[in-house]
User: What shape does this take?
Amino acid sequence: MAFVNLQVNMADLPVAAGLEMEPMAEAYQQEVKTQQLIIWLPLLLLSFLPFLITQIFFLLLIPVFMLLLAGLVSGLVIKKSRLKGIALREHDMAYRSGLWWQKTVMLAYDRVQHVEVSSGPLQRKYGLASLKFFTAGGSSVDLKVDGLSRERAEQIRAYILERSGGQGRA
Amino acid sequence: MSDTNAAQEWHRTSPVAVVFFLFRTARQFAANGLPAIAVIIAAYASGGTGRKALMVAGLLLFILISVIASFLNWLRFRFCITGDRVLVRSGVLHREELSVEFGRVQNVNIREPFYMRPFSLAVLAIDTAGSSQKEIFLGGINKDLAVRLRETILAGGKEQTDDPAVEASASSGPTTLLSRDVKDIIIYGLTVNFILWFVIAIGAFFGAWDSSEEVLKWLAAKIQLQDVVQAAENSVGLLGSILLLLGLVLAVFLLLPLISVLGALFRHYGYELSVEGETYRKSGGLLTRHDESMKRHKIQALVLKQNFAALFLKRINMQLRVASAGSGIESGQLPTGGKATFLVPALHEPEVLELAKEFFPACDVAGARFSRVNRRRMTTLVLALITVPVLAVTTSLGLLLSWKFFAIAPLAYAIAWSAVSRYWKKTGYAVVGEYGFVRHGFIGTETTVFPLFKVQRVDIRQTPGQRRKGLAHLGIHLASHSLKIPYVPIEDAEQFRDLSLYCVESTDRAWY
Assistant: This one.
């Protein structure tokens, strides 16, 4: 074990593993599906073009492949959106994401510099919002959580700002 | 002392600052127009007399414009020191007013460029951190004023007192911690850039990044090599340009160490590190004297770098990292020589331990027992990854040319295997008390020591394969930089995370 001379007993620490993750809002599934439709439908229509121009029956295979690809990719994207989860504790939060590469980010409220709530046109339609948490150093947007309902996003923001020190405290 | 308190008085810098602005314009131009300059020089060499005259006239016009612009910049530049902040108004066409709170300042540096020294003037550089990093330069102010301003700013505006008793107890005078002679600085020049020659030789590799390497990377991104080659070909012909290129390569290999040593001497000649209360100060420099200060509590991490050359010379270079808004490369700016780091060069091992004790008094650097990452998994993955290219190369060469080429395969695996075990040997992590340690390396090592309570964010990533084997990639994000440890046993990664979060959440100490 690499940990020596600790001032606390490891067994006494709050354990972050196995946290109960709160899934994203149900409307998020709808948003992701609509998003995929917006991306794939024009591509699918375009893929008929070679057949329509040349009238070669064989070229109908292109839309078939396109349909398969669309189904596969959107299936994975939708599955990925289902796996996302967020958990709030008293002093920190966890955000889990990823299909193969599963990543869990943990962030203490006291390190949050500021929080941004944003929602695009599609998100507004489904009453959703994204939360962005900024911390010091490194990449500019440190943690972005998609797929929260508007109210939940505002609620979390208020909750975290109440508990964060940030530089504003100084 | 009361004149600094007479608030809201706008000052102008000395007229010598025109030169300062001129230098800044020139540097900016050189930074943005380097490929253009190379092409122009080549065009000048190949052009006729008429064109040459035209170009000289253009150059003179350009210089004239720069001088006028610098003068206007100086005329428009005003600054004001109030009780708790610095205000700066600047800009000729685009007016700008900046306001920086003393408490937010990361670093205050005083530079004495050679053209200011005869007038006993100095440049005060105020370095702030935040999502939009801005450095304020007060170029061409009286040196005494600069020193006084630095005291005020570093004291956070609060301790700016006339009470002699407080002043006396706060400062028992600076204590010199370390001084480096010419030999040390030469060694630093040799050790800091050895990896850089290496990088040039075998391409980008597991390096320990240093600001000079960043400059090189930035240069490579900036210069369109084709343009230069094209211009050279037009002027000296094909054979000439081949010779030029060969000469250039040779010069690079022979001159780089020399340039590196000279650069180190210019920047750090007469290096001295001292401490006064909570404030560290380092000074040095041949023509332009740099005088940098930093508060102890601003230190986010201590980085110990020992590359191949340093290993051979038994020296270690130490960097103190403060909060940064990322490196300037992404935003297309020239990195200004590791502004977010505070260098302590060419240390012997006992000096490292002694200084680490000074910067992190509660930290037992020598007591770190490094755990290693999972070797088997890493090796398997790397060997699997190289299988396809290795097989493709060996079979095609072996079948087409000679069966002897099949021997490449075991050789390639042997090299890959030894590289991985080399990396594995140097990579590790440890916790001693409230401090975390992360070590990386290939030939040399780079060890980061940081107080756990200054951690900003922790993440754990796993692939399905890693989940089965109980391994993970651990990411630790500090305000100064990020650390990644691959193939850590999941229990250790989770404990590292839990402990860091505990340290963050159980303290009231500010990280900044």
Observations:
- Chain B has three domains: 2-170, 182-359, 371-505.
- Residues 182-359 of chain B form one domain.
- The first strand of chain B starts at residue 11 and ends at 12.
